Amino acid sequence: MIPYGGFWWRVLAYILDAIILQIATSIIGGIFGVGLALPLTGLGAGENAAFGMMMFGMIGASLVINWLYFAIMESSKLQATVGKLAVGVVVTDLRGERLTFGRATGRYFAKILSSLILCIGYIMVAFTERKQGLHDIVASTLVYKTRDPSVLFDNREVFA
Q: Which H/E stretch holds residue 141?
C-alpha cells in the first residue's frame, strides 16, 4: 500500500515550488522593467498610475504563470510539480490515474478557497484519513508519497 503524501511533505514541496515561481516571476518582471519602475512612485500622479498599472499587470501575469505551472505539471506524465518531484509525491485522481488539465486547473483554483478560510483547507491535510486538503476534496484528487505513479495501480489480471 502506497502511503498518502502528508502535510509536511506537501509544505516542503510548496516551498520549493514557490522559490522556483518567484525566480521565474522576477525574471519576467525584469524583462518588462517592473524593477525599474520603483523610483517612479515619488514623481507624481501620472507616474503612480503607470506604476499601478504595471504592478496590476505583473500580478495578473504571476497568477497565470502559477496556474499554468501547477496545472500543466500536475496533469503531465510526471503528475507532479518540480517541488513535489523533489520530495517524492504525485497527484492523482481518486482512481490513481493522471489528472486531466481541467481537473488540475480546478484543483489550483480550489486552493484559493483553502486559503480564504484562514488556510484551514490546507491544515485539513494533517487530519483527514486520506491526507486530503479542501482543494483535494473539491477536485477529487489524492496525493501519494511515491516517485513512480505507475506503482499506484496494477493492471495485471488476477485470474490470467
A: strand 141-144
Report how far residue 92's alpha carbon sits from residue 125's, in angstroms, rounded to the nearest whole number.
15
What pTM, to 2 d.p., does this model score?
Answer: 0.85
The span from the CA of 18 to the CA of 56, in Å, is: 20
How far is the C-alpha of 58 from the C-alpha of 65, rounded, in Å? Answer: 10
C-beta neighbour count of 118 within 10 angstroms: 9
Q: Residue 23 CA to chain centroid, in angstroms?
A: 15
Please, are residues 105 and 91 in contact by the beta-carbon 8 Å criterion? no
pLDDT in tens, 52-97: 777 788 888 889 999 999 999 999 999 999 999 999 999 999 999 9
Instruction: Give the relative orientation of helices 45-75 and 7-31 as an angle to the nearest 10 degrees.
Output: 130
Closest CA to 92 of 81, 104, 83: 104
Q: How far apart, in whole angstroms, are the C-alpha atoms of residue 136 and residue 131?
A: 9
Q: Which three cell numbers stand for residue 146?
A: 511515491
What does each C-alpha distance from 27 to 21, 33, 58, 62 come to in angstroms? 10, 10, 11, 11
